[in-house]
Structures are given as C-alpha cells and as structure tokens.
Amino acid sequence: MFNLRARTVVFDIDGTLCFDGRTIDDRILAAIDECRQAGFHAVFASARPVRDLLPVLDGAFPSATLIGGNGSLVSVDGQVRARAAFDPATLGALMDAVERYGATYLADGPWDYAYTGPADHPIRGRVDQGNLANRVDIAELPEVVKFLVVGTADTADTADMAELAEAGRGLGLTVNHHLDEGIIDFAPGSTTKWEALKWMGLSEYVAFGNDINDFDLLRNAERAVRVGSHPGLDEVAQVTVAADPEAVAAEISLLAEAARTSLPATAP
C-alpha cells in the first residue's frame, strides 16, 4: 500500500469516469463516496463547461469543487466564476481564422453558449443536456471562456483543421487538437486544469485523467492515474488502468484504503 500527503482527488469526466457521454457508473460513484468518507475532497475537472458537468453528476457530491472549460471556469459552493476569458482582440483574430476556413464552432460563455455546427454532430448531444442554458449568438455572450471548432467547410480536409489549430497557437492560445474526434479546443492563454487548481491554492492532489488535455494535471499530481492508453500521457502516468468502470472504481477505492492505513482521515 502507498502513502499519500494529498487529501484532494481530481477527476476528469469524459473517458475517465463517464464512458457514454451522459452518466457515471454506480460503482464509480460509490468508490468516490468511499474516498470522501475517508477524508478526500473531490474535484471534478472537465473540458465541459460547469453547466454540462451538472447533469452528468446528477446531484452527486454537491460540495465538490468543479472546474470547467479545461480550467477557464470554476464553481465553489455552487458559485460559477469565469477564471479566464478570451480578450476581444484575440477572439476577433480567432474568428477571422474561423471564417477563413469556413469553420463551425461551439463557443461557451460562463453559462450560455453559441453553436453553429450541424444538429447531428456528436458534440451537440453533450451540450446543455439539462436544458439549463440558452443558445445565443456569440455576440450575446458576456465573455467567451472556451471555443471549440467542430468542422470546416471541407470536412474531409484534415489539413484545414491542422492549419486552424496552428493559427490558434500563433495567437498564444492553449490548443488541444483531438484528431480522433475531429475537433479543436481553444482556451485563452495558458488555461489548463492545473492552472485552475493553482489559482485555487490546491497544490497537493491525486489525479485521474485520460486525454492530452490532462497532461499538466497528471504531471503535477502526487499520484497520477491514466485511464485508458493515450500515448501522450506515457511520461506522466504513474498508474494505468483500463477504461472500464470496474477497473476505475477499484483504483479509486485504493485511495480510501491508503487514507485509512496512513494519515488520519479528516472530515469531508
């Protein structure tokens, strides 16, 4: 058994805890609750905005801290705050590039969103599942905290997407190009889940993640658990488990066991 100083555990959502885009398996929820009872504070950190985390959690762990938009949004005690947003000049330059390539997008504000992509795009089914927000024009968003390109005019031309991703990097944005899904995730500045944790003063933690946008989150964790086999996380993952609810739940339960056999547990 291992010893841990950390009493915070940070979970990515999609592909880490949630495998159908909508729900978290009861075995995983029970294991997280076991950790909570052993003294861990749960943080859920996702590329989703906070609005789209709530239906997946479905009321579980109401005292948990939420990080949305890969670090651009935080929610503590139910209060959602924009931690980072696109400045108008940078957003204008990004929109110029989007128009140049005929790209369609999902833009998130602190709560509402703008969407110009096709109705049948897979990402659309994960947006505002709880019908909690409004779909508006991008000009109506008070701030843009996350910008996701979901396609270009020539959907078969992967070079267009690669060039658009590079244009975002040239603007100083954080860019995650998900080749398997054919989407590009843009965030303002150096926005990451790790940056959000630092901003909140959470420096010691255990992390679970599955994708390249979890790289810094895992790299800075006391214990870094990769779910699945993404090769981009090879150098930062200390532990790898299968992308399977039973395997993930078992690894989470190990934390509770470690807490009970090492440092005294604190109240959740």
Describe the protein.
It is globular, with a radius of gyration of 18 Å. The strands form 2 sheets. The chain has an 8-stranded mixed beta sheet with strand order 5-4-3-2-1-11-12-13, sandwiched between helices. Strands 7-6-8-10-9 form a 5-stranded antiparallel beta sheet, with helices on one face. 28% of the residues lie in helices and 21% in strands. α1 (26-37) runs parallel beside α7 (245-261). The protein has helices spanning 26-37, 50-57, 88-100, 158-170, 193-199, 215-219, 245-261, and strands spanning 8-11, 41-45, 65-68, 73-76, 79-82, 104-108, 113-115, 146-151, 174-178, 183-187, 206-209, 223-227, 239-241. It has 268 residues and is of the alpha/beta class. The protein has 7 helices and 13 strands. β6 (104-108) and β7 (113-115) form a beta hairpin. Residues 264-268 have low confidence and may be disordered.
Task: Provide a concise account of the structure shown.
With 268 residues, the chain is of the alpha/beta class. Helices cover 28% and strands 21% of the residues.
Summary keywords:
268 residues, alpha/beta, 8-stranded mixed beta sheet, 5-stranded antiparallel beta sheet, 21% strand, globular, disordered C terminus
